[in-house]
Amino acid sequence: MSEKTQKAGRGRSRPPVRTDAGDSVSLEEPELNMRIVELLQQDGRMPYSSIASIVGVSEGTVRNRVKQLIADNVITIQAEALPDAFGYKFNTMTFINVAAGADVDAVARRLAQLPDVYYLTMLLGRFDLGMATYHKSQEDFREFLIRHCYGHPDIAEVENSLVLKVHKVKLHWSLDDDARRGPASS
Amino acid sequence: MSEKTQKAGRGRSRPPVRTDAGDSVSLEEPELNMRIVELLQQDGRMPYSSIASIVGVSEGTVRNRVKQLIADNVITIQAEALPDAFGYKFNTMTFINVAAGADVDAVARRLAQLPDVYYLTMLLGRFDLGMATYHKSQEDFREFLIRHCYGHPDIAEVENSLVLKVHKVKLHWSLDDDARRGPASS
DNA sequence: TTGACAGTTTGCGATTTTCGAAGATATCTC
DNA sequence: GAGATATCTTCGAAAATCGCAAACTGTCAA
After folding, report:
1. CATH architecture type of domain A19-79
2. Range(s) for CATH 1.10.10.10 in chain A?
3. Does domain B32-71 have CATH number 1.10.10.10?
4. Global confidence as pTM
5. What is the pLDDT, as a whole number, of residue A32?
């Protein structure tokens, strides 16, 4: 890797393309950031130098890009452990309708603080809120329901489903998805 | 870091504790693996040597443990990008009841293959399957529904909710959760 | 009790990688 | 064109990783 004689930087080769929307840099255009992120989606600890040689830029560029992407909250690089590994084996989905006149956001914020809740969204449809929770046991779930859902005047309706099996959890997105989606995509 | 004279390994200081269940090593007991993983949950690229000095073992031990945890599918270390960053801004939840006599698993497997689906579970309750999807537009979602849900004889009922706001996505678990859960925990 | 045995941990040197700083190149503005 | 801005590259020092052999400990059988 040292056949290059001393040669100064070649400068930027990519114009500062900006998406029409005025927001910050994203990953929508299949550019350098995208290719870097796709590699880090395969292995979050891949050395910058390896990424650099694959995508064809210098190590420093990869390092700066990743640092910027993380700082901008576009990506995160973290270890993930399945809740099962921590003993949380009782997995449920709970749907909630708030009482008439109640503050949906307030209810959502209150529930979102609970450590058992790992997914909470505001919905438009049959229910106002959808919530996924993990518990160590059925008894823990019962206590969770009693304490945090039933008896609260701002919660009018609660419907529960037990998660029997998680078939798929997809955390990673890439532009390749477009290709895989199938032909007739209008 | 070199004030130590040549000294061979001290050997293992942790007995091979095994949880009563006979399954493979997990993260349930608050041991070394747990502390390593918790650090990697904060920064997936934290150097092994830094982790080692924090938890008080050698770098090689941390490296071996992490390698093993990844090989055992207990943890993953990967970059995550929000679907928004890739242009997937139309977020829905779809609930499905399969037709009487149909194979729930087969339906689940078919849907799980679709790139738009990022979460798919088998449920016990009002619906048989719960599915979360991301699409680039409302029109894409409509096509998704028509092609993959409606018209399939093994799908009897479909109910959709639009995700208006994701309040919480929790990917990381730790034993600290137990402490935060509150006092009266039976 | 004793002696393998298996599983981990450690130390270490060679190789890679990271890091920070400085120079180079291109774009944009005036 | 000159200057400002932003990004990329190079480079050497510092740090981290990797592979391996040796050492340690608890288990199990004799």
Report:
1. Orthogonal Bundle (1.10)
2. 19-79
3. yes
4. 0.71
5. 81
Tell me the HSE value of B33 on the side-chain side, using a 13 A CA sphere. Answer: 21
On whether the CB atoms of residues B78 and B31 are closer than 8 A, the answer is no
Q: Which residues of B touch A172 (CB under 8 A)?
A: 78-81
> What is the C-alpha to C-alpha distance for residues B67 and A78, in angstroms, rounded to an integer?
15
- CATH 3.30.70.920 boundaries in chain B: 83-162
Residue range A78-106: mean pLDDT, rounded: 90
Residues of chain B with CATH 1.10.10.10: 32-71
Q: In the CATH hierarchy, which top-level class contains the domain A83-162?
A: alpha beta
Chain A contact for B149 (CB, 8 A cutoff): no
Decide: B70 and B103 in contact? Cβ < 8 Å.
Answer: no
Q: Measured from the CB, is B15 under 7 Å from any atom of strand C? A: no
User: What percent of chain B stands above pLDDT 70?
Assistant: 75
Q: What is the pLDDT, as a whole number, of residue A24?
A: 39
Whether B22 and chain A come into contact, CB under 8 Å, resolves to no
Per-residue pLDDT of B155-172, as tens digits, reads 999 999 999 998 887 766
> Are A28 and A177 within 8 A, CB to CB?
no
pLDDT at A52: 95
